[in-house]
Amino acid sequence: MLKSPAIAPALEFEENTLELDLTDNVVLKRLIEEVREEDTPVERTTAYNRTYHRHNR
Amino acid sequence: MTSVAGSSSSLRISEHAEKPFRYFLADQCLDIATERALLVWFESDAPWRLVEKDFYEQYEFSLLDAPLPASLNSFMSSGSLTALRTAVENAFQRQLTDKIGLVAHKLTPGQRIAIHNDHLTGAESHRLTIQINRGLNDEEGGFFMLFNSFDANDVHRVLRPRSGSAIGFEISPASHHAVSRLYGGVRYSLIYSFHAVCHDTVG
Fold first, then answer.
1. Which of A11, A41, B56, B97 could form a disulfide with B113 if both were Cys (CB 3.0 to 4.6 A apart)?
2. Order of strands, edge to edge, in the sheet holding B144-147?
3. What is the interface pTM, i.e. ipTM, of the complex?
4. B120-154 burial string, b = 16+ CB within 10 Å, else e?
5. Which residues of A touch B152 (CB under 8 A)?
6. pTM for the whole thing?
7. Chain A: residue nearest B104 by CA?
8. pLDDT below 50 — which residues of chain B?
9. From CA B185, how far away is CA B14, in angstroms rounded?
10. Where are any strands of DSSP class E within chain B?
């Protein structure tokens, strides 16, 4: 398993809750960094082209 | 309740939302037998292929083109697909065409899907994503994230990938979402795609 140092002590598994509590700023910041789109020139992000914005086809 | 995989299963919608884009959450979309059959197949001889794009990397394949195990015949029957389409139509109050897409996704540790919106004018209009896994805890990641804009800092909410749960959403320039990095386990999902009937008239 990959290391996930910020999450292990910060989150408690809630078996019946679908939504994750976002009050922990450290965890939230790490999640944001994980999904941030890097290297996206403005012209690409505004064009909503297939490569950059489409998924689940 | 609407049958998805057979008479014993249902699409149990627990919540509807209109902002930042139209979506619903469902607690349970698969009966246990179907969920197990899918997991066994996904973990054995399902025809996964690795797809690498700029904003994501994952394994995937189309269930409509794959040789299915007999245990999934009911799940993939036209009746089940039609019932599911009807449920989505009712949820969004939009008429959908007969055309349905269904692909499976697999994320393994280290993989993630960056923020995107799925939008392309003239293409699919609605999506239903069902989570399937053997139980992922928070340490293992793979959260489904929804955003208020294309800014990743602008988080709307974060959902655990609880097996059997689902999110249905209307695809638009505003339907920004992502999947956080997976750190352990395997995260499978079923992705249904639907097309809205166009009522635009000329003249």
1. B56
2. B113-116, B177-179, B144-147, B155-159
3. 0.86
4. eeeebbbbbbbbbbeebbbbbbbbbbbbeebebee
5. 32-33, 35-37
6. 0.85
7. A56
8. 1-3, 5-9, 201-203
9. 27
10. 13-17, 23-26, 49-52, 57-62, 96-107, 113-116, 126-132, 144-147, 155-159, 166-170, 177-179, 187-196
